[in-house]
User: Fold this.
Amino acid sequence: MSDIELGYMPATEMAGRIKAGELSPVEATAAALARIERLQPDFNAFITVCGDQAMDAARAAEADVTAGKALGPLHGVPFSVKDLVNTEGVLTTFGSQAFEANVPAADAVCIARLRAAGAILVGKTTTPEFGHKPMTEAPLFGRTLNPWDPSATSGGSSGGAGVAAAAGMGPLHVGTDGGGSTRIPAAACGIVGMKQTLGRVPHDMTPDCFDLLSYIGPMTRTVADNGLMLEIMSGPHPSDVHSLGRETPDLAGAARGDGDLKGKRIGWRLFLGNEVIDTETRALVEAALPAFADLGAELIPSDGPFEPTLPHWAPLTYTMWSARFGQMAADLGEKMSDTLRFWMEEAKDITGADVQNALAARTRVYREVEGWFEDVDLVVMPTLARPAIPADHDPRQPIEIEGKAVDVPRAAWYPYTHPFNLSGHPAITVPAGWTEAGLPVGLQIVGPWLADAAVLHAAACFERARPWADKRPAAAE
Assistant:
């Protein structure tokens, strides 16, 4: 079997073949590493590749298969981790020169769970410094490029993971999402990205788990892989107060998409606090909606007023960056990303009252979004207001939609994502289609709190109706 075939093989299929003795973990891991090595010069998706450790783990996994030992649900399946998440014994830089030699002594909880399930770590994917912007580039490693169009951004901040999934560098990739950082690159790269309910996956790396905006989650090519990965990562852990007392539903089963959507009421909206959307993006999202009706759901227009959430997200985020990285910025100077230093400087004008008002607004956003689900079961919307913006765009400057300057990316490109970081609701992005220029467009499905399984099931049903996994960027062949 070729490296390309193995690189694009879903984890669900790969794990089944390994258990059946039809595929060797060594072959699967070597194929992922070969794809990474070949495509790294083109797309720059990885900061660190741990080839020797991965092959040692693959040989051990193969020995377990040969010995007839009990195998985990991801036994021998390669995976990557965004370089914001700790991995034991593997360089973890956070995209910053301050951590260019940092090797953690332990895995983050969710990474330990993936390894315990048998998955094999092949490397760490790129991130902007501390995940601070929606485009993936950093002083430590340069820029990550979109495999559908290298002049376009891969999105961020989990851009390396999005590119690795889209270009077939293995089936499973761990991203993080503090304002859309899983869903933005997933939409920009034409893959599946999930931001689960707050607390579904324990986040043991944050210094503040009570006011958490960031999530660690799966990025994959298929919904079934996404649900399987999320189920393994999920479950209570004492490090994260939001995770305690949570039962993990059958997320992997829901993500298989059995049955249909009969009896489901699905609201849909084209705007979420914004006023402008790209014509082709709108057309692709609207053309995708009938698939839900064909599956038995009732579609209910849900467009209505929604307060933009960037004015609430920004004070919480910029002050957090300032508190965590302020001394580091003083020490690094121009070695730190100028955009990160810019937004940390903006934090100096944010008062304690501003932060308290933003926290109160966060509760209002939660109550408003949860209120949607008194009338509908799920809500569907675009993930981004336009396809991927140029790779060299300054995120402090307005973007263009329909040839006209609108607002900065956080306000105008992804107003659909950060509301749910604030509210904690589960949200998944899946491909709605591709533009005439060949760029992906994402469709986001949002559910009530704890309804991760329902979100995954709807996404999987949509995938069955409008499959995308066979569509591959020509530059990655």
